[in-house]
Amino acid sequence: MNRRNVLIGITLVAFLVLVIGSLMAAQWPAGSLVETDNNELSSILFNEYGLAVLIVGIVLFVSMLGGVFIAQEENE
Questions:
Q1: 76 lies in a domain?
Q2: Which domain holds residue 39?
Q3: Is residue 36 part of a domain?
Q4: How many other CB atoms are there within 10 angstroms of residue 65's CB atom?
Q5: Torsion of CA 37, 43, 46, 47, to 10 degrees
Q6: Best label site of 15, 42, 63, 75, fewest CB within 10 Å?
Q7: What is the pTM of this model?
Q8: For residue 10, how many C-alpha atoms fall within 13 Å in the half-sphere facing its CB?
Q9: What is the Cα–Cα distance from 12 to 36, expressed in whole angstroms?
Q10: In angstroms, rounded to a whole number, what is the distance separating the alpha carbons of residues 40 and 76?
């Protein structure tokens, strides 16, 4: 096996453990459907679900970088 592939595998496993562990440890309270404005929504989103928002942001950023890396042309 290539040393780079082992490092990628270890990184992937560590990332999956982090994501699954944070999802299992998070308290997901059931709320009622009420009218909320933008200030309440942002307060709830970042105060109660800040870790989930951070993880989603990191996943989207990494996937964007991967898409750019795949899309770039190779110079021969």
A1: no
A2: 3-71
A3: yes
A4: 10
A5: -150
A6: 75
A7: 0.47
A8: 6
A9: 38
A10: 54
